[in-house]
Amino acid sequence: GAGESGDLVFTGSRDCNVRRWAVSGDAPVVERVIPGHKAPVTAIAVSRDGSELVTGGARGDGELRHYRWQPVRGVDAEYVDGKLKSNAGSYVRVRTIRRGPEGFKETAHPEGVLAALISPDERYLYTVGDEGGVEVAISRWSVETGAELRNAVADAPLDDMLTVYLNASFVELQ
């Protein structure tokens, strides 16, 4: 899988791209650049083995993009001086996750995605999105289908919020 090359770090940036870094060597190396959002990338969720990746965009984008690592058949991993430089493969976009009934789908979090987390069993994606004003939406999605399974809106002081942390062992929407 994607995580077999050692320690990986994913970053989102103002240039609307996600970067996958290998940090197991002397200095971090960008292995992949994944473009696609129309606004800065504000949330990233990665499965334990790195095979599932979900990215979320800021206000003006608000999309959730689901990618899956796909090895390239017949191409070996690249080694430099006996160290793994990169795996042979790439992230393939599975879907853009949207909410609402079929035919009337809208952006997952139009005001921006604040946080995302894939559950340890890789069945669920949890997200927090800005709903405008002082409300946030906490949603649970199926990783398999992209369907929104549950949504709860809560008041939250967004002006004071510097970070949103999701812990899968504590997240359970009733």
Question: What is the overall shape?
Answer: globular
Bin the helical content.
under 10%
Low-confidence stretches: 1-5, 169-174
The ordered string of helix (H) and strand (E) elements is EEEEEEEEEEEEEE
Strand content range: over 45%
- Average pLDDT confidence is 79
Strand order of the largest sheet: 4-5-6-9-10
Q: State the major sheet.
A: 5 strands, antiparallel
Q: From the helix content, strand content and strand pairing, which structural class follows?
A: mainly beta
Total DSSP helices: 0
Any idea what the radius of gyration is?
Answer: 17 Å
CA-CA gap between termini: 33 Å
Strand segment count? 14
Please specify the SSE layout and strand pairing:
Blueprint: E1 8-12, E2 18-22, E3 29-34, E4 41-46, E5 52-57, E6 64-71, E7 78-80, E8 83-86, E9 89-99, E10 106-107, E11 113-118, E12 124-130, E13 135-142, E14 148-155
Antiparallel strand pairs: 1-2, 2-3, 4-5, 5-6, 6-9, 7-8, 9-10, 11-12, 12-13, 13-14
Descriptive terms for the model:
single chain, 174 residues, mainly beta, 4-stranded antiparallel beta sheet, 14 strands, 0% helix, 49% strand, globular, disordered N terminus
